[in-house]
């Protein structure tokens, strides 16, 4: 039998010091030799190779994504108060220009009112029994012993707090959805560790027969996947951004009326419903992904964060009300990739780096999503959606 490992050499690494510039260069030279192509751009960066420990393995360089600046954006939040300039990392032409336009109109209208209405990160273990009645009995025991389970979980973390445990029954399984608050961290690793400690205690102390085993995740947390459960119950921050804009302001700046935007939303709602979309808005993931990349967030969390609920109305005076609800916005201002060089600088542009800033960042993201929703909706109606891409987004 052929040993394929001898045919395909392994990526160079050092078990004792894998985060040195020398190792990074060795790996770049290795891949250049393997592909017979030089790496001219990957090797240009300002961060130290040593600083990437904990963020990446087998470091070779940096993906340079252009960053544009949009704003000012006036935010009337409970944590974000004032005008902000928002860094957006993207390679899509017209994106920054579109958000900038929406921000200008929202600011002229008096700003976006943004509220974080819920905050929880989940891990959802499943306990397997011999039959459904035994599983039901465990559910009652979990409720009776919640305070002890909470204290066991919180022995592993200084900031994480177990808020509640949802329960779901199916066949002979009991699915438990642990909801934690996680401070300024996104918290997936934090809640995994805390939930493991709680589950080990449950398994060791459960007094009734029938418990066969448990799995730390029964997939009801839907980590880095969308689910309707997260849309309803939230994962991360549930953020609602609102603005009321006069018909005159819309006509003067966007070339559309409040009535036109309102009727368009009714039509697009039908299309979203027929498509089975998780988002009846225009393009909220564009803002979220661009800010995530610029600010050191886990880009895969766009999967959950992409869900959104758009709502519009026109009042008796003809003013246009627009609200965007982001039910599962997973963000951090501490830990993860937030302390890397460019990511830290982008967070600092919005005064959102470090402890006590995560809800401020969530509110700014909510307001940015609102700006993009307004601008693109108007562009589609006014007919300049395609023309703007032709003029700004054609890099061939």
UniProtKB/TrEMBL annotation:
<dbReference type="GO" id="GO:0008299">
    <property type="term" value="P:isoprenoid biosynthetic process"/>
</dbReference>
<protein>
    <recommendedName>
        <fullName>hydroxymethylglutaryl-CoA reductase (NADPH)</fullName>
        <ecNumber>1.1.1.34</ecNumber>
    </recommendedName>
</protein>
<dbReference type="InterPro" id="IPR009029">
    <property type="entry name" value="HMG_CoA_Rdtase_sub-bd_dom_sf"/>
</dbReference>
<dbReference type="GO" id="GO:0004420">
    <property type="term" value="F:hydroxymethylglutaryl-CoA reductase (NADPH) activity"/>
</dbReference>
<dbReference type="InterPro" id="IPR002202">
    <property type="entry name" value="HMG_CoA_Rdtase"/>
</dbReference>
<dbReference type="InterPro" id="IPR023074">
    <property type="entry name" value="HMG_CoA_Rdtase_cat_sf"/>
</dbReference>
<dbReference type="Pfam" id="PF00368">
    <property type="entry name" value="HMG-CoA_red"/>
</dbReference>
<keyword id="KW-0521">NADP</keyword>
<dbReference type="InterPro" id="IPR004554">
    <property type="entry name" value="HMG_CoA_Rdtase_eu_arc"/>
</dbReference>
<dbReference type="GO" id="GO:0015936">
    <property type="term" value="P:coenzyme A metabolic process"/>
</dbReference>
<dbReference type="InterPro" id="IPR009023">
    <property type="entry name" value="HMG_CoA_Rdtase_NAD(P)-bd_sf"/>
</dbReference>
<keyword id="KW-0560">Oxidoreductase</keyword>
<comment type="similarity">
    <text>Belongs to the HMG-CoA reductase family.</text>
</comment>
């Amino acid at each position: 039998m052929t040993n394929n490992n001898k045919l395909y050499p392994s990526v160079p690494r050092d078990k004792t010091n894998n985060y040195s510039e020398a190792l990074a260069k060795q790996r770049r030279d290795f891949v250049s030799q393997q592909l017979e192509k030089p790496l001219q751009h990957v090797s240009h960066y300002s961060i130290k190779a040593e600083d990437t420990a904990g963020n990446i393995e087998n470091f070779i360089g940096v993906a340079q994504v252009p960053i544009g600046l949009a704003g000012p954006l006036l935010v009337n939040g409970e944590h974000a108060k004032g005008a902000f300039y928002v860094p957006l990392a993207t390679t899509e032409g017209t994106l920054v220009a579109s958000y900038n336009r929406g921000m200008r109109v929202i600011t002229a209208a008096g700003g976006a009112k943004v509220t974080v209405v819920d905050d929880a990160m989940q891990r959802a273990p499943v306990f397997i029994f011999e039959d459904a009645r035994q599983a039901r009995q465990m559910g009652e025991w979990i409720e009776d012993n919640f305070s002890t389970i909470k204290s066991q979980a919180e022995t592993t973390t200084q900031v994480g707090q177990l808020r509640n445990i949802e329960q779901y029954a199916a066949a002979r399984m009991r699915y438990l959805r642990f909801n934690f608050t996680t401070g300024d961290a996104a918290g997936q690793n934090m809640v995994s560790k805390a939930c493991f400690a709680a589950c080990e205690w449950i398994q060791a102390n459960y007094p009734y027969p029938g418990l066969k085993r448990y799995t730390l995740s029964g997939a009801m947390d839907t980590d880095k996947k969308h689910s309707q459960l997260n849309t309803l119950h939230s994962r991360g921050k549930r953020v609602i951004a609102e603005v009321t804009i006069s018909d005159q302001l819309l006509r003067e700046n966007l070339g559309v009326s409040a009535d036109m935007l309102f009727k368009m939303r009714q039509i697009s709602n039908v299309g979203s419903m027929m498509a089975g979309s998780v988002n009846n808005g225009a393009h909220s993931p564009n803002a979220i992904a661009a800010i995530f990349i610029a600010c050191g967030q886990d880009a895969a969390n766009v999967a959950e964060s992409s869900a959104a609920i758009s709502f519009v109305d026109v009042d008796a005076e003809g003013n246009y009300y627009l609200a965007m609800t982001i039910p599962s916005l997973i963000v951090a201002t501490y830990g993860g990739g937030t302390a890397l060089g460019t990511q830290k600088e982008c967070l600092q542009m919005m005064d959102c780096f470090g402890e006590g800033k995560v809800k401020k960042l969530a509110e700014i993201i909510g307001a940015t999503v609102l700006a993009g929703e307004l601008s693109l909706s108007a562009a589609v109606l006014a007919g300049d959606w395609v023309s703007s891409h032709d003029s700004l987004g054609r890099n061939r």
